[in-house]
User: Fold this.
Amino acid sequence: MSGRTGPAGQPPLLARPLRPPSAGRAVLHLLLLVLGALTGVAGALVQPAWFPGGLLLALAAEAGLVVGAARAAGHRGAAVAAAVGWAAAVIFLTASRPEGDFLFAAGSGSYLFLLGGIAVAVICATLAPVRQPDGDPVRLGK
Assistant:
């Protein structure tokens, strides 16, 4: 690490100690977790209705939620919270009950929704544009 300091004589961002999240950020992540779960349930209901279009609509809704959460909050943690909510709801819905009820049929659309949704969540959470740390406008890692 270089000996440079950040703005106003502060140590560089990576040298600062971690702080616990604020109450507002914790509430935001909880709301995004619930919104991700609602998006997963809605997508599970829409994707088999109009097969190719419903599947694309459900995956686009998930991508919009994950990228929108990251852009609105300014950090990837919000995108991860929304993606975890989606994945938890969808995985919960895949379990069959003792009565024999289930929501997902054993078809290609269901598997594309499950696996494609996980791939979309990972891609969008990883590539979501977020703000850069304070300091020099050069590329990080140089």
